[in-house]
């Protein structure tokens, strides 16, 4: 008997702080004007996508002591944007990235419970940690937490927030997974939490929301991040772009669920993916090359090289050869607040590798960055892209994709109009929404059901 076709999950990422957007395109719009968010969200809903996703940066990124102004340098508050979008959409899930390192459980739980009520059960929370003291300078506590402390705090943060969400149910003393204890009293929503990171008590003032709790996303690719997701998340983002890499990640994460009493279908794996469409595969390939060169200007290429060299390279010609000097491996880094810095843990080895690649292919600095940086995941005609996406999902490389267009806000329109209908014809993507809440769209159980119980249908 053949294996039944998996249903594909699709979501849309409003790019935000990134190097993805092609700012020079005449159709590129504002990343702060609400009309951009509204257009993007309503396109995603028209295409029957599961949710819209917003990333968030807590500090403007800097390079060489100056604001990095080659991509987005600001973003309205996440909760404000999502609450506004709740009023102009009916079914689309609303996912926000909220940091667990510098926020407090009561405040975040209250905001998400309110959003879930306002949206009729469509709220989702991407739980992230902060890794640098640079970001911490914006907050009263300042500083930063070591990796093990960040995930310890994040785990207790989420557990504490869940205690607040659940405080309107039951009347008993319970122990959470982090070793803390809490009291919940349905009559008044009272709580007491005593743990390593939080010692709070009071009354939660938002009643049980339609989903009980927001859907929880996690984005870490480290072993700690994967374990956190297996224990507590409903979905995990992935950056693995190849079929083989996706399958390895998918298998690893799904295999971790059993130790927490969870089934494989209780955690969705959703990689981010870019796309370029053309009338033919050849046309799309040509357009993808043009898009990539427009994403990586000469100035952008030099700034990217500075992540590794940790030096001011503004005097170099981006169309010329790589620097013959070695990277500065000192403690201070020229780039502040950029996750890419962590990707190059051995800058001397990376520089040697890049010089070898440039010499072998005759690449300039700009050519190197174009060819070693992120590329479009799906390139081709609508039929080719639909077929490739379906192949990844059916081969268990993912459960779907979070699409990141290179034009904001209209870049999603062509996918909605030309690819989604082909997926629907294959019978692997919905033609109508499945129910009123985001949990319905994702096929996830309500938290009031016992773990391992039936899924929402």
UniProtKB/TrEMBL annotation:
The keyword Protease does not apply. GO terms for molecular function: monooxygenase activity. InterPro entries: Diverse_substr_monoxygenases, Luciferase-like_dom, Luciferase-like_sf, NTA_MOA. It comes from the Bacteria. It is an enzyme of class 1 (oxidoreductase). Residues 23-395 form the Luciferase-like domain. CDD domains: Nitrilotriacetate_monoxgenase. Its EC number is 1.14.-.-. Keywords: Flavoprotein, FMN, Monooxygenase, Oxidoreductase. It holds the Pfam family Bac_luciferase. The keyword Flavoprotein applies. Belongs to the NtaA/SnaA/DszA monooxygenase family. This is NtaA/DmoA family FMN-dependent monooxygenase. It comes from Streptomyces lienomycini.
């Amino acid at each position: 008997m053949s294996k039944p076709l998996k249903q594909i999950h699709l979501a849309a990422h409003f790019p935000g702080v990134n190097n993805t957007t092609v700012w020079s395109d005449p159709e590129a719009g504002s990343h702060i004007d609400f009309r951009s968010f509204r257009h993007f969200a309503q396109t995603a809903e028209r295409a029957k996508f599961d949710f819209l996703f917003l990333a968030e940066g807590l500090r403007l990124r800097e390079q060489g002591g100056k604001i990095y102004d080659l991509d987005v340098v600001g973003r309205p508050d996440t909760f404000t944007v999502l609450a506004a979008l709740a009023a102009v959409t009916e079914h689309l899930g609303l996912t926000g990235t909220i940091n667990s390192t510098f926020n407090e459980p009561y405040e975040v739980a209250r905001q998400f419970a309110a959003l879930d009520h306002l949206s009729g059960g469509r709220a989702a929370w991407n739980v992230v940690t902060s890794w640098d003291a640079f970001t911490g300078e914006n907050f009263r506590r300042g500083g930063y937490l070591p990796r093990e402390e960040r995930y310890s705090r994040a785990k207790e943060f989420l557990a504490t927030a869940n205690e607040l969400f659940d405080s309107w149910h039951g009347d008993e003393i319970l122990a959470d997974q982090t070793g803390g204890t809490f009291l919940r009293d349905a009559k008044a929503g009272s709580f007491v939490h005593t743990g390593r990171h939080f010692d709070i008590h009071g009354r939660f003032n938002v009643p049980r929301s339609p989903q009980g709790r927001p859907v929880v996303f996690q984005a870490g690719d480290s072993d700690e991040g994967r374990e956190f997701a297996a224990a507590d998340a409903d979905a995990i983002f992935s950056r693995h772009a190849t079929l083989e890499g996706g399958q390895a990640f998918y298998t690893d994460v799904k295999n971790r669920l059993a130790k927490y009493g969870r089934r494989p279908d209780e955690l969705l794996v959703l990689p981010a993916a870019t796309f370029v469409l053309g009338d033919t595969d050849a046309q799309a390939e040509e357009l993808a090359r043009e898009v990539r060169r427009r994403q990586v200007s000469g100035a952008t290429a030099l700034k990217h090289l500075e992540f590794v060299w940790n030096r001011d390279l503004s005097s170099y010609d981006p169309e010329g050869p790589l620097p013959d000097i070695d990277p500065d491996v000192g403690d201070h880094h020229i780039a502040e607040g950029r996750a890419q810095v962590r990707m190059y843990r051995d800058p001397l080895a990376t520089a040697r590798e890049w010089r070898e690649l440039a010499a072998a292919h005759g690449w300039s600095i700009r050519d190197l960055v174009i060819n070693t940086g992120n590329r479009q995941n799906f390139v081709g005609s609508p039929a080719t892209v639909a077929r490739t996406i379906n192949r990844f999902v059916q081969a268990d490389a993912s459960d779907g994709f979070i699409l990141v267009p290179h034009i904001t806000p209209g870049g999603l329109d062509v996918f909605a109009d030309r690819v989604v209908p082909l997926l629907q014809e294959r019978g692997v993507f919905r033609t109508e929404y499945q129910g009123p809440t985001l949990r319905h769209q994702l096929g996830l159980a309500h938290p009031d059901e016992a773990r391992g119980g039936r899924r929402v249908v």
